[in-house]
Design brief:
mainly alpha
């Protein structure tokens, strides 16, 4: 899976098709993964000091996720409030991804 993502990333970068939407979507997804990982790490450590550090990092990750989401929403890249509009955005992203893969 990782190799496929790296290949797609190379194709996007080399084709000149890298744009704010692609970057922001990747960053938003990375924030979500980080949030999940911090939550799991917090639940699996017995050391209170380490839990406190991880909790602060979790808070930072949640804050970063909110900032990226707000950016995407303000640029029309993500619409959580209007399902029909989000479908249009998703279809546009699918078309871009399809063009990149060809």
């Amino acid at each position: 899976m990782m190799g496929m993502l790296e290949n797609m990333s190379d194709m996007v970068t080399n084709s000149g098709m890298m744009n704010d939407g692609i970057i922001a979507t990747g960053f938003l997804n990375d924030c979500k993964v980080g949030i999940r990982n911090y939550a799991v790490a917090i639940s699996e450590t017995a050391n209170q000091e380490l839990r406190d550090v991880l909790r602060r990092q979790l808070d930072d990750a949640i804050e970063m996720h909110a900032k990226v989401f707000e950016y995407m929403e303000s640029k029309g890249l993500y619409n959580a409030k209007d399902f029909q509009q989000q479908i249009k955005i998703d279809m546009r992203n699918l078309e871009t991804a399809t063009n990149i893969m060809q």
